[in-house]
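Before relying on records like the one below, remember that each one covers exactly one chain. Contacts with other chains, cofactors or solvent are not represented anywhere in the record.
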Amino acid sequence: MAKIGSKATYHRCLKQLHHWKYIFYLPSHNPYKGSQIKMLKFSTSTDMTSDPSTGTSDEQLLGQALVPNTNSKKQKENYSKPKLPKNENEVLDFFKNKHWSLLEGSKFFNHYTAIGWKIGGKIKIVDWKASAENWMLKADEIKKEQKVTEVSQNRDNLKTINTKNYGQPL
């Protein structure tokens, strides 16, 4: 059953069915009189019925056309991209082949398993290997930032460990 939300959509669909020769549509422009629709009886037999309760007629619409697939422009799923990892061992093997830390591989797997393999909680991850590479790039950046902050704290003259004699003249 179609979910048609407006009268305009309903009439447009009926006109398309009439154009494709699935039905014979006779619209009534009188609001008190209904429109007429004649259609074939869809069965495996070749007999046509003229039963008034079914609304079919003796006249058969010849040359009934098949409707082309309207969703033919829909993007097809790319099967060449890798699927999500089956288990943690697959992720750890990938990290081992790239010569990355296995601890980072475990962190990566646990993190994305916890959030349902989604980016930002909304978008499903398509290529987990690319996400792992981004993970490692960010991990390297975080390590560099930590090293810079440790070095800068040691060079800070306000946080000296040396005891000074302030009684001595300069």
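The beta strands are 23-26, 36-39, 118-119, 123-124.
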